[in-house]
Each structure stands twice: as structure tokens, then as C-alpha cells.
Amino acid sequence: MIDVETCDNFFLKAIGADAQPLGWPSPLESHLGRSADGIPFFAQSEKAVWLFDRTPTVARAAAARYPVIGLKECQDASVPSTRR
User: Fold this and answer.
1) Count of alpha carbons within 13 Å of 29, Cβ hemisphere only?
2) What is the pTM of this model?
3) Distances (CA, A) of 28 to 2, 11, 24
4) Less crowded by CB within 10 Å, the N or C end of the chain?
5) Which residues are within 8 A (CB) of 42 and not within 5 positions of it... i.e. 6 or more apart?
6) CA 26/CA 15 separation, integer angstroms
């Protein structure tokens, strides 16, 4: 099976189920966006990297579900300054 989606949607699928344990509201989808109280989309990727780094079980589950990930829009894949 092949999923074609945006980076934001990939990260939403990867961490959406873990929103509450990560300290975010659930369901996460209804709290994302540019509104004053919304969670910025870029924060999903940062939180996913944090989660994958600290929770190998979650990282392995994501790797099993998505064994190959190809990115078309590389501007969405910049490394946060804290990880350089």
C-alpha cells in the first residue's frame, strides 16, 4: 500500500494518537492551524522527532507502517535550529 500525503498529514498520523500523553489536546486535528490558540503545523514535526528519539517503540511502529518515506516538498523538512 502507498500513502501519498503532505508532511503535516504524515506527522498528524504518526503522533495524533499520542496527543494527550504528549501534553497536547485530543483530537489533535481540531487544534492545528494558524488561529491564536492553534498549534502550528511545524510543531508536529518537532514533537514527532522528540517522540521518536525518546520512544523507540513508537519509532519502530512508525517505521513498520512507513518503511519508505519520500519527500517532494523539501522546504517542509528543514532541521530545527536546536538539532543542528
Assistant:
1) 5
2) 0.68
3) 24, 11, 7
4) N
5) none
6) 11
Q: Identify whether the C-beta of residue 68 lies closer than 8 Å to the C-beta of residue 35.
A: no
DSSP state of 83: G
Smallest Cα–Cα separation from 14: which of 54, 53, 66?
A: 66
Cell of 29: 486535528
Contact indicator for 49, 84 with CB cutoff of 8 Å = no
Alpha helices in 1-55 (DSSP H): 7-15, 41-54
For 24-68, the pLDDT digits (tens) are 888 888 888 877 778 888 888 888 889 899 989 988 988 898 888
Number of H helices, E strands in the chain: 3, 0
